[in-house]
Design goal:
Length: 168
C-alpha cells in the first residue's frame, strides 16, 4: 500500500540522518474507502494524487506550527505492507481527515518510493498560506483563498538519493 507521510524539511533531514521516518505512530494519507467515496473516482492515479494533496495540506499545518521552519511542504511516498497503515477505528470522518491512516512504527527511508517537495518559488505562497491557516480554519474566506494558493504549486518529485541535495 502506498502511503504519503507529511513532513517538513527539518523532519526530512532528521529522517535522513536516522535512516527512517519515525518514530511511530505516524500519521499518513492513503487511498482509503472514505477517500474513494469522497473523490468519486475509480482512477487510481487521481486517487493517489488526492492522498498526496491531503498529505501536502498536513505538511502545511506542520509548517504553520513552527515559525523557524522552511516554508516548503514535504511529503514522503512510502510503500508499506497491506495492513500496516490503518484508519483509526473511532475516527470521525470529516473533510480534514479523509484518507488519514496511522502507521504503528517507524518506516525505513530506504523503503520510500519518492520525496515530493515544493520548489523554491513556492516559499512565498506557502509562507502566506501558513500565516493564514488559523483564520481560514475559523471561516475567513479571504484567508482560505490564501491557503488554497499554496495548492497552485505542484510538489516536485525527487528520488530518495536526492535527499542530501534537498536538505543541504
Amino acid at each position: 500500500m502506498r502511503v504519503y507521510v507529511p513532513l517538513t524539511l527539518s523532519g526530512l533531514a532528521a529522517a535522513h540522518g536516522a535512516g527512517e521516518v519515525g518514530p511511530g505512530p505516524l500519521t499518513a494519507y492513503a487511498v482509503t474507502p472514505g477517500l474513494r467515496e469522497w473523490y468519486v473516482s475509480d482512477d487510481i492515479e487521481e486517487l493517489e494524487y488526492a492522498a498526496l494533496s491531503r498529505a501536502a495540506s498536513a505538511s502545511l499545518r506542520m509548517i504553520a506550527g513552527r515559525p523557524d521552519e522552511a516554508r516548503r511542504r514535504v511529503v514522503v511516498a512510502v510503500d508499506v505492507p497491506d495492513g500496516a497503515a490503518v484508519a483509526e477505528p473511532g475516527q470521525v470522518l470529516d473533510a480534514s481527515s479523509l484518507g488519514e491512516v496511522r502507521i504503528r512504527g517507524a518506516v525505513a527511508l530506504a523503503e520510500a518510493a519518492a520525496v515530493h517537495v515544493d520548489a523554491d518559488d513556492a516559499e512565498k505562497d506557502v509562507a502566506a498560506a501558513a500565516a493564514a491557516l488559523g483564520a481560514a480554519d475559523l471561516g475567513d474566506d479571504d484567508a482560505q483563498f490564501t491557503v488554497d494558493g499554496a495548492d497552485d504549486h505542484e510538489l516536485l518529485w525527487f528520488g530518495i538519493q536526492e535527499i542530501p541535495g534537498l536538505i543541504g
